[in-house]
């Protein structure tokens, strides 16, 4: 019995060592080709091509995306069983895992986000008694809050009424942000790297290109801020003047003016 346990322990140790070696080797393999190895899987080819033409062209895939052994084994399993998707779609857990990686390079922007209302958590929004006693929670809430949540409102909050008390059926999401960076930023957007204008440049200088884009959870894709329409605002019969800045089109997707 003791000998069998020793043999079993040695076998598990060897398996663990091989797994760690394979994980490290795979990470080096994917990093060596600056992402081209990731394109070996056909469903990733388009994403790899897009990021090479984006402001993040100098970043490795694993600089932003999780590359744990669990993730790699999941990819292998999906291919072995013929379940590989035609196009890559980020899961909610993928997006949450990327937030700390965004912070590494965009510390100032991350600090501004964290200090503002857009860093609200699932608890802040979906168990808010002041709101929930007046308006029933519905799936359309996910259009702006929790865009990457996989499921409907019944899968997140109970009870579904105006009385409460409300609780999250996914308690692990309680302190997670409902508006992560990827809600308003298209990481693979094609275009030159962002640059800061010189102080002496005139106001008429063309606007800086950025990654602002609205993530539509129904289409599971981003729409650039420049493609979003700006509403015509009015105060009764009087038309109001509004800034023509196309970036406002992004804000209006969630902060639409009310009559």
Principal-axis shape: globular
What share of the residues lie within helices? 25-40%
Q: Main beta sheet, described? A: 2 strands, antiparallel
Give the helix/strand class: mainly alpha
Q: What spatial order of strands do you see in the largest sheet?
A: 1-2
By DSSP (H or I, 4+ residues per run), the number of helices equals: 9
List SSEs in N-to-C order: HHHHHHHHEEEEEEH
- Look at the structure and give the mean pLDDT: 79
SS strand fraction: 5-15%
Distance between the termini: 78 Å
Low-confidence stretches: 11-26
Radius of gyration: 23 Å
Strands, count: 6
Keywords for this structure?
259 residues; mainly alpha; two-stranded antiparallel sheet; 9 helices; 6 strands
Provide structural commentary.
With 259 residues, the protein is mainly α. Helix content is 36%, strand content 6%. It is built from nine helices and six strands, in the order H-H-H-H-H-H-H-H-E-E-E-E-E-E-H. It has helices spanning 2-32, 45-52, 61-64, 69-80, 92-105, 107-115, 122-126, 129-132, 248-252; strands at residues 157-158, 167-168, 213-216, 221-224, 234-235, 238-239. The strands form three sheets. Strands 1-2 form a two-stranded antiparallel sheet. Strands 3-4 form a two-stranded antiparallel sheet. It has a two-stranded antiparallel ribbon with strand order 5-6. Strand 1 (157-158) and strand 2 form a beta hairpin. The radius of gyration is 23 Å and the shape is globular. Mean pLDDT is 79; it is low at 11-26.
Please summarize what this structure is.
This protein has 259 residues and is mainly α. Helix content is 36%, strand content 6%.
């Amino acid at each position: 019995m003791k000998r069998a346990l020793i043999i079993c322990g040695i076998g598990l140790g060897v398996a663990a060592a091989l797994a760690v070696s394979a994980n490290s080797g795979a990470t080096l393999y994917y990093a060596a080709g600056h992402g081209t190895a990731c394109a070996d899987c056909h469903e990733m080819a388009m994403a790899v091509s897009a990021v090479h033409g984006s402001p993040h062209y100098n970043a490795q895939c694993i600089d932003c995306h999780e590359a744990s052994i669990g993730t790699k084994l999941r990819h292998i399993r999906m291919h072995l069983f013929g379940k590989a998707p035609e196009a890559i779609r980020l899961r909610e857990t993928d997006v949450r895992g990327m937030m700390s990686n965004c912070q590494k390079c965009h510390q100032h922007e991350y600090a501004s986000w964290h200090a503002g209302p857009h860093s609200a958590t699932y608890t802040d929004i979906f168990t808010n008694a002041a709101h929930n006693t007046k308006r029933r929670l519905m799936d359309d809430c996910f259009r702006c809050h929790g865009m990457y949540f996989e499921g409907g409102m019944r899968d997140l909050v109970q009870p579904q009424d105006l009385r409460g008390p409300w609780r999250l059926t996914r308690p692990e999401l309680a302190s997670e942000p409902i508006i992560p960076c990827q809600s308003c930023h298209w990481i693979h957007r094609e275009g030159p790297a962002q640059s800061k204008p010189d102080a002496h440049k005139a106001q008429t200088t063309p606007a800086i290109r950025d990654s602002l884009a609205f993530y539509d959870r129904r289409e599971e894709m981003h729409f650039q801020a420049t493609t979003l329409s700006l509403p015509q605002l009015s105060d009764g019969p009087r038309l109001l003047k509004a800034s023509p800045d196309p970036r406002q089109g992004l804000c209006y997707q969630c902060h639409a003016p009310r009559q």
